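> forwarded from #structure-qc
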């Protein structure tokens, strides 16, 4: 038995680069905890400033305990090495619990518990990712400031497309996201 376990470990280590990264751990709140998620005070203006200082784009991911679509993203999409590296290199993600009690400070200065902020923002689906510009005008709420929002679970291709569409600021052009995705598919990406 020991020989079989040693052989399995050796094979796993030898071929480890061929397999995607492991799914994120589950935290005490029942939510997945990816390495690229930031633990902040959830003050969006401060988070935006920190993201900008690191040369990254601020993003929020809203999730809930037991969400099968969150699980799908954390087990099938986010662990793909290309996706994981792209997020780590380009984004400053903070996680918000749809039914949580941790205080969040919106861009407009209002402070509410996570669950109340989600209600204020009108979000209904998990996961939902919101992406922000480098500068947010005074008085805007997160949904008003967001350059893109992606509700639901998508595969690697669509997820990579929204990440690159935001990072490369394609939203500032006349090309809508749907055409951008189609052009990536046609290019074999």
């Amino acid at each position: 038995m020991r020989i079989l376990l040693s052989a399995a470990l050796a094979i796993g280590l030898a071929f480890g680069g061929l397999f995607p990264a492991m799914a994120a751990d589950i935290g005490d709140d029942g939510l997945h905890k990816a390495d690229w998620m930031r633990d902040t005070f959830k003050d969006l203006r401060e988070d935006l400033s920190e993201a900008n200082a690191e040369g990254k784009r601020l993003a929020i991911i809203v999730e809930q305990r037991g969400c099968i679509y969150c699980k799908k993203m954390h087990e099938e999409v986010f662990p793909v090495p290309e996706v994981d590296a792209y997020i780590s290199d380009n984004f400053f993600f903070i996680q918000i619990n749809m039914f949580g009690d941790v205080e969040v400070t919106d861009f407009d200065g209002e402070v509410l518990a996570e669950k109340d902020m989600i209600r204020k923002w009108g979000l209904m689906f998990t996961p939902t990712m919101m992406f922000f510009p480098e500068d947010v005008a005074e008085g805007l709420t997160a949904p008003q400031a967001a350059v893109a929002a992606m509700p639901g679970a998508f595969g690697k291709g669509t997820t990579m497309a929204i990440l690159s569409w935001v990072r490369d600021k394609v939203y500032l052009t006349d090309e809508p996201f749907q055409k951008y995705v189609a052009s990536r598919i046609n290019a074999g990406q």
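QC bot note: Confidence is low (pLDDT under 50) at residues 1-20. The CA atoms of residues 64 and 118 lie 11 Å apart.
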